[in-house]
Structures
1.
Amino acid sequence: MASTRADMEKRAASRRIGAIAGLVPFLAPYRLTVLAAFLALVATAMISLILPLAVRRVVDGFETSAEQLLDNYFMAALVIAGLLALGTGARYYLVTRLGERVVADIRKAVFARMIGMSPAFYERIMTGEVLSRITTDTTLILSVLGSSISVALRNMLMLFGALAMLFVTSAKLTGLVLLLVPVVIVPIVVLGRRLRALSRENQDWIAASSGNASEALLSAQTVQAYSHEDASRARFAEVTEAAYNAARKRIGTRAVMTATIIALVFSGIVGVLWTGARDVRADAMSVGELVQFVIYAVILAGAVGSLSEIWGELQRAAGATERLVELLNAADSVRDPAEPVVPPEPLEGRIAFEEVAFAYPTRRDRAALDSVSFEVAPGETVALVGPSGAGKSTVIQLLLRFYDPRAGRIRIGGYDLQDMDRATFRRSIALVPQDPVIFATSARENIRFGRPGATDAEVEAAAEAAAAHEFLAALPEGYDTYVGERGIMLSGGQKQRIALARAILRDAPILLLDEATSALDAESERAVQEAVDRLSRDRTVLVVAHRLATVKKADRILVFDEGRIVAQGSHDALVAEGGLYSRLARLQFTEGLAAE
């Protein structure tokens, strides 16, 4: 926790208000809306500055006998007020709509960037923190774009406009007002720096809280099974309290800054007005001029006070923008080439590993694969077996180019993976992972994920081939039954059969099975194995398995140990060879017979 806090403090210290400039590329497509909103803003500010002149005329008009002239002043005041109302409504509509549009674009851009990042990226950042940036940080930006920036610009115009009109009204009183400026600026600068650091720390703790909650809730069953509810509650409470404490400090600092500025400004104004009242008594200025000066002084004070509050919002938005820009500019270790090769689709199902060496980014000192070379011919079924951690699943990860090898080349259909767009060669691959992903939708749509344009009949045919039709048809609403978040309504075996049906529906020339039958009972496993056998006749199949009974029919078996291929051949040949495979087979089949 201490290191996390230190990292947050370091990130907070690096933030600058100029980070808001990161929003410019998202505003650029809507420059006409920005211009219209700015014009409306300028118009309302100018109208607001005209109102005190009308009030002065009205006040001084009471001292004249020109009744018609007085009526005209009142009528002009009403017209100005109407124009102000229309301009304010137009400004609100344009600015608010612009804020919603830009934030929607930011969310889409960040999600589009994050969904394509390689697994190596997510070894360095929690998914919950990414979600926090997409939701919490964009909400802050929406507040600023939809309100704060507009209000800040308007108050800046009002400030300078009111200051100019104060000079016109009374240079003497305005000089006294300007003496207050340094007194007001000092607390803004001093407290603003503190507020900036606290705002960023607050957002970082909120992100950490979101990440902690996401991890715990996604693993709720494991947490409950090991009776770790209290520990999880305590960890979440600790992070949440840290976020609250950071927010409390930020709110306290902002409250002190606001109160200090308002107190200084209004105290000064009272002193200035006292001087003005004495000038009226001495006939140095009219009552109307004093009222006009008072109104402009109030406008000036209100603008300064508002800017001091908005400054805190801008600080928080700058931090949010910086965090989102970090995601948009995040470097990915796996990149598509600038000028990719465009191979014919679908690719030929020929796979080749050429002296491939690889270590995971978080475990660089340990080789997951060490000079691995093998080739799989089109239509061949090759099984990868060996102890846990031997490198079998790493082959699948590299073949999908979730990572790039440290050395060597990987080819599909004769083309180097790093010469093609990832989306191009992945269309020729279907995957059934060890831990299948089931989406929170219907069973039918989960299978159709393999090929979105597939018909209902094709979906059901794939389910039958994967031995999933019987249990799907028995669900309350059949294939259209909602299966819950991460398929919580399904058993492990049912999830794997849906994942296999998804891969079958994809109809790709290369099929990757990573422990695809590990959660199936004997009867379902036999049915699925028969389906795999049928599929294997027309496509290249790479099977990763611990249960050797599922790979006996493979054309070839590659035996992995400590990141190397230590043997290869058919099941019978490897058993007769008497090496690692023979030992694994003896253990598994002997235990199986004993269990029976």
2.
Amino acid sequence: MNLSDHLPAFLVMIPLLGAFLTPLAASFGKTVRSVFFVLFMSLILLTGISICASTFGGNILVYVMGAENFSLTLPSGMSYPVRILFEIDAAGALMILCVAIAAFAGALFSVAYMDRFSGWKRFMALYFLLSAGALGMCATGDLFNFFVFVEVSSIASFGLVAFWRDKPEAIEAGFKYMLVSQIAAMLLLIAIGTLYGKYNAVNMGALSSMMRYGTLERIVLAILISVLAFKCGAFPIHTWMPDAYAETPSGVTCLLVTVSQASFYGLIRVCFSLFPGIAGGGMVAWILIVLGCMSMFFGVLMAVVQHEIKRLMGYHSISQVGYMLLAMGVGLLALGNGEKMAEYGLTAMKGGLFHVMNYSFYKALLFLCAGALYYATGTRDLDKMGGLARNMPWTAGMFVIAASAISGLPPFNGFMSKWMIYESSFAVHPILPAVAMITSVLTLASFAKVFQAAFLGPAKADFVAVREVPAFMLAGMAVLTVMTLLLTLFPGWFTGNLFEKAAEALLNQRGYIDAVLGGM
């Protein structure tokens, strides 16, 4: 048996096995528990890298779990095939890589960060489940299985957002997150059930091949866009995001960033692979563009006035999601307006996917830096910090790199992806890059405030004895710093080998359909 043929299965089996074995591993003490946690997350990372490498040449991985001829027969006599189908092209592999790297970095960080607290068994099991849910969302080629993985990630998130259950704020954030997630899940299930009722299929490739665009399909598309846009934190159903990100342990927030990106991946897969005949029109594209601009602008405005560091970064997450929605909306609009605009559409898609990876790394790094500050000082209030660069030089240095990247300062990777979005959106309407640039300026002002308040100025008397955080926490932050610097130093390589191939995979609806129908 060639193990490489089963990489898609390992992608979710490893974290699920980790969650199952967590109580046993934790019973052997701190050292075994930590080694077990890092080892399993390392295996997930290696699997994600291997899958990404397998799609470099334009390959589409199709993997079916469940015997081809095995069916579940109900008492009524109706029979249903029992199988889980994964379909991973370059776009899915890109998202898997982002999730795997962020999950690994968050795990390294959490080994030391969570050592002060009880509940390690619960934490590890939920962390594994959250990883499995996010990876499954990016790997599945089946709408119902996508719903299942959304629920797996949501259930794990509920427990992790409310992990500090002695804090009323954490319970409130967990309840708000649960309410929004369950409403979204019910609407998602209604949309999937509607398609199944009409086409007797939930596989995305099969549905694409049979799709007939009518009123019912347009209603389903509207539901799917609404649910997935709001699940990734778009305005106006964005209020869960700052609360959830603020109260979750920082290593988990690092992973939650990519969970929201898994929802964004579901959104672009629906638009480009499932409903391109409708989504390629002007209305859907402009809805995404408007949602993107509103998310960018209102997110950054709310961030500027915050004094609690993780809430500030939570609002910036809303703003960053706006760039991706803008890019995908511009891509849909430009690609649907003839050959003259097609080049701008492809540039927008590459820029949007570039920004997805950038955001997954520099935003996760910023949350880890915020966690390091809280670990060292015991506060998240910027007004109570000051002068910490002297005592925490590594944290300060990595914060500067991440803050420069998210603010779009040249030559950092954030500037590269934003420039591609500016260029393509200007071809649609000059007001769009203006909104994006204003957002970047306000982002820079916001993070300049954070750096000045936390790291510069005189040291507060309570924090004179503060020291740099433990090595495992620095290691988790260093992984994301290295990835941010690699994207900064080699943008051409990443664009040619990852982002361009991912954009082309999204446009290749025929290839997606043929691969999955042939794989079944």
3.
Amino acid sequence: MKIYYNILLAVSLFLFVACASMGTPDGGPYDEEPPVLVEAKPAIGATNVKTGKITLDFDENIKLVNAFEKVIVSPPQKEMPEIKSSAKRVTVELIDSLIPNVTYSIDFGDAIADNNEGNPYEDFAYYFSTGDVVDTLAVSGTVLNAEDLEPIKGIVVGLHSSLEDSVLTTLPFERVSRTDSKGHFVIKGIAPGKYRVYALADANSNNIFDQKSEQLAFMDTYVSPFATPAIRPDTVWRDSLTIDTIKYVPYTRFQPDDIVLRAFKEEFYSQYLVKSPRDSHNKLTLYFAAPNEEAPVIEGINFDNDAYILENSVNNDTLTLWFKDSLVYRADTLLLKTTYNIADSLGNMVAKTDTVYASAKRRWAKVMELQNEKLEKARKDFLKQAKRRDDYDENNPPEYIPPVEELKVRFTGSSSMDVNKTVSFMFDEPLISLDTMGIHLSKKVDTLWVPIEHLFRPDRDIKKFNLYAEWRPDETYLVEVDSAVFKGIYGGVSNAFRQEMKFRPLEEYAVLYLDIPGTGNNAYVQLLNKSGSVVQTERTNENRCAFYFISPGVYYLRLFIDENGNGKWDTGEYEKGQQPEKVHYYNRSLELRALFEYSQDDWDINSPLDKQKPLEITKQKPDKERKKMNRNATRKF
């Protein structure tokens, strides 16, 4: 009985203690240390190595994170190396035969991490030599998209000791790296000497520029790697917010470490006719795969060339034939030839002719049948309504006259207009006639509408016309259009309409004046909104330009140097040694307020290119760094 009582007492005490200490028992501090390399075979920095199989042993179980993306082997390998992890070991097997007297480097980045907490072994690089010397020099920098200075992630960056201009098209890289999410690269294991540096979006993984569709970058000069002793600060944190101490640590600085490569795609298009739909009998559209410098030539086979009106896009990559001759568009199939320029195997432009068989979706007989059914239904509805009137005479019923088809007009004027915006009329089809005498423009003076002078001019788009006048801020205008002023090529007639337009007062705008040394008269400056889209564009004159009528908000600035004076940004061409035209960003945002005039004269276009584009409008954001969590700083033990 006494034994039973003692057992019961012990159980009760255990339950009491357990209830008094709720939660998970403390298992000690978190593991926040990365794995430690215990042994490497062959040893790091070994010379005269004859085997391509490497083993790396660590002090704890590890895992590989995105090894295919992060691990870089140099010299580049034709056959993909086998990289595996198991328990505490990483094995690498180079399938290619080893090259004599060469330093091999395997840059893991932060691909190796401990298996439990994921603490990365950062910036780990393994290297050995097949000769007597290990080469240790390195170069580093950034690759940016030449057109918008976006960092390019994952592009290959390589070196050539051959300084020939054509080496990128004939020989594979000797040493390589790949950019991270910031566009940054480091090429390691370099021997002293002169090198050319390239970047290549290598579509077929042969480390040669052999496809015009591949993005590339090149330097106009060569680099000579070197190393110097240096000192850098090393911050010791007490916790996530408090600095404990700052130490200054000696290290070896490998240079150049500020290379900037501007990557681009050459203007090479595989030109061809993509499709030629004929969605309706009177409209045929030709879609081309790329822009045409000159508009393709159209030659009708079963119709004359004066039977249509041609509408072409700005880049001549879309042509629309509006058939105005009913004898032509009634045909169920139209035949034509189109001749345009393509590049041959040597890059020379030659003419190519395609024959187009354009069949309508519906046969003309079916179209007329549907139209007649619609017309007959409208006639019956008209008579049904007429019979309900008191004056209806069954012996003399009223005649049904089909209404004239309305030509719809889209007018851009509104009750809140910007002074620098164009006032336009837009139509769904080309016009066959218009009567400008039926377009009236008045300005409100006190309570009266006073007629003012104006111009009505066609736009480049054949279905668009613009209304020009001396628009003034904080003034109200009235646009009145008589009926039947506009007539489409298919008989549609416009209705009368009137629209008041109120232009915003100057008090609602900001003005921005820019003085940008080094731009002269050949730079185009673009005002960008928060999404990076162009709001306004101005050309510099003696290093200066101005933006007027800016709505309040946050803006950014970009410019390009128009070196050939054609009014647009131009890409580069490797064979000619031609770099893309330079693009620059103002390195911070501008918050512009109404009623204010701003002057900016601190835009240094010669500042480091990779530091110019503000992060807010950079689409390629840096990856989140995998660092120690420092959870022990706030944990109580």
4.
Amino acid sequence: METEVSYGKVYGDIQGIPVGNALGGLPGPVYASQADSPIHWQPWTKESLQMAHNSKRLVLAVIAMPQQPFFLDVLHELSSDASSVELINSTYVPILIDGDAVREYGMLSGELCAEIGRDLQFPLMVWMTAEGNPVAWLPMPAKEFGSMPELLAQSHVMVSRIWVDDADYIMTQSRLDQVSRRARMLQRLKDVETSEIPTDDAQRALRQLTSLYDPLSRTFDGAGGLFPVGVLDVLAMSAKMENLPADLRERSRKVLDSLLDDLLVSPMFDPLDGGVFSSKRGTSWSFPIYHRDCSSQARVIVSLLNAYEATGDKRALERAMGILGFVQGNYMTEAGLFTFGSVTAGDVGKWLWLYEDVKEVISMEEMPVWMAYSGMKESGNLPSELDPQREHLRGNSIAFAKSAEEVAEQLEIDPTRAGALIESSRSKLLQARNKRMTLPYADIQPNAVATFRMISAYATAYRVTGQTSYRDLASKTLAKAKQHFAEGPRLKVYSGDAPGSILAARAFVYGTAIQAALDVEAVSLKGEWLLWAGDLSSTVSEEFSAGAYIRECPRPADLIGLPVSDPYMLFDESTLGLLAMAESRLDALGIRLVPALRKQLTAFPTSAIQNPVLHSDLIQAALLQSFSITYVYGKDAPEALKEVLAKSPLKGVNRRLVLPRDPPHLIPKPGEAVRLNPDGAVSPVRSASDIRVPSLP
């Protein structure tokens, strides 16, 4: 029989057992990559769980994160093994879960791994009942324990034996385990210790953050393997926040200078296409994990532009604009929106360069110039500690190691000629690399987070460069995003069609949307986007506020019933941090959230003092609440004054139109504005020259 579902057809027999792959047409690179798999993958829906109930089978779910494309190798290993395919299809209802779109399960994976004493690792294989209760789980891959087909077969023997012997016991026990898990998670959320002096503790956390950088080893303790976007964000904001203590501003700027010196000449930035890699191997920035997605690119653009403004380091501006061009060339759709990005499995060696490989592609004249520019060495440039097995002996990870001017000086050639040779080498090597890379899976569906992040990047690009085309792009793209991703007061994560449990936007998406709306409002001063940001915040209050915490999944899409919240920066900014920063800005702009949600968002966890990297977004939020200034202007304010306001920092400098309910001291005289300081002091702004905004050093 055929069972109709909203996104297409799933084929099953009379017992509801799936006999075909049902991922075709689902949005996102995870599903697109497995749509032709011989495994009968089903989506994360009530209908799929009902199949397990009807067929009296367990679900075999795999949670994959598109930011970690290693899942492609793991699933390929399974789908290429005939016995594994037969075992999965004949015994289970297999479900594939995109842990980025279905964020509650991506975060729950960390909880499950902790329960068995393992670090969080994707993809994660979970055996669960038709009620969605986990029975057993296994992080994949675990190469030290054998191949995936072997691991699957071994695990299957254990799980299936218990299921066959006593299915009722598994149903009952997994249900009880889920009840206990729910209680533990809720208790942890309730037990979070919050500061009674958030202004002071946020400064302590910032001081602790700046102390983590070691200028001798040039390492940043606690930064982990991800590109340190959050650290750059808080340092750049703090360096420009004039009401912070002067010594703290200076410490932030110095650490920011040092971090930029390390990052901007590292292979984290690709000199061939201009993009930036999301994470690294080992302790230095010398050996990237060669993965990129649109959202992470957009975040780095914003961070680097703000860092440029705080330090005057022109390399930061150059890298940011290079990434912007890379994003527009690789992730923009015909409609002007942005995709998540394709995921590609591939040999690391295809990204690295041997001296002989380069010599075959570029000319003898170009060779010394490119070697100096990219940091290549004839013997290879990978430190032995990053490649202890010497798998990539003599391999080179290329970078913007030196500028064209530095290369010209080193080689004693004309700078213009050096620049021309660098560009010709780059073009030839990019073409050669593209030929040897695996073709990525197509990703054509616009993604909400990627699009909203790029809107913020456009707004920041206008603010820093002054090019009005970026402001226009920010406004136009936001209008299109609202059209594609909003359905009434609610959002969806992709513009395509899919079941609600997959498509419904989680709280994180609302955080990025509010941020984008506030950013466009700040650079356009039109008023309409402030209203939409307020509407979105009302939806957050209604859909996601759950007493002691902010739930990640909206109730209609929730299939697990656990209090999953997102308070830590594990893969990106946290939902709590995004909304907390938005709350500060909304409050300054005259939009007050409901008291319960406001209380959740203004609380500052004391754990941020000990773990500032994980909480750098909440540190920003607390500093914004305590040290931001606000400019209030009238409708008749001169254009020159409004232009300076529009180019002020997006975080730390609020600007809003005078409100009818404003007290007399906040109502500017005709043609003027009013500046409101954090301590409540008010001063008149008679012209654009009176607006004090951070300027380049």
